[in-house]
Amino acid sequence: MKLIVDGHEAYAYTGGKAFDPALPCVVFIHGAINDHSVWTLLARWCAHHGYSVLAVDLPGHGRSAGLPLTSVEAIAAWLHRLMDAAGVARAALVGHSMGSLIALEAAARASTLVMVGTAYPMKVSEALLTTARDQPEAAMAMVNAFSHSLASAKPGYPGPGAWLRGGAMALKRRLQARQTDVNLFENDFQVCDRYAGGEAAAARVGCPVHFILGALDQMTSPKQNAVLGGLLKPRIHTLACGHELMAEAPDAVLAALRTALTS
Length: 263
Prior knowledge:
By secondary structure, the protein is of the alpha/beta class. It is built from eleven helices and eight strands.
């Protein structure tokens, strides 16, 4: 589905069914140097079980035009404008990693808030930021290694025998190469590192909150959620996987999401 937001074409995957704004809506928000494709399984399930779906490509990512935005606050405001363009007043907001911070910041229009692989503050080491600036390919390899709990995960999503690390790295390379005006990897990780509005955003949340966390996550450790956990009082679903939860534990993430949407 293509929408015009701020004069640029924005893309949202609708789960294989025509978008119907009259249905309860689920908006999926990807993380750093990702796109809508990380949500395919969850988006398709929702679209075929009574929900409308917008799995967005953020500006400058995937099929959405324009430059990538440089702050969580700016991206959350853009997300509200995209919802307006789609005719959606409120939605369940589901965000992964960087996307979880965007969902939190945008949660004034959330019917349910689901934060996947989240942490706050989401600080990034100076060493990684420097490598991202000077050697983005090496930085992507570092993040890819830390994001997966096993060197070779058992067959799962998107199909038996899929190489999860290889697929994730290929996606990062493709997105980095397509964005010729900005170092996309560095931009996205700076967005995570700079965000300091979590406490203020949490105070505005008035809907049920769920955290879906990977027990083996080395990028956003569950231990980093004391601040938001204390403020939001979420229901916490802890899964036996790393940061790439949707790929490493697809069925468990789907089960947790179904609980969040129906609780």
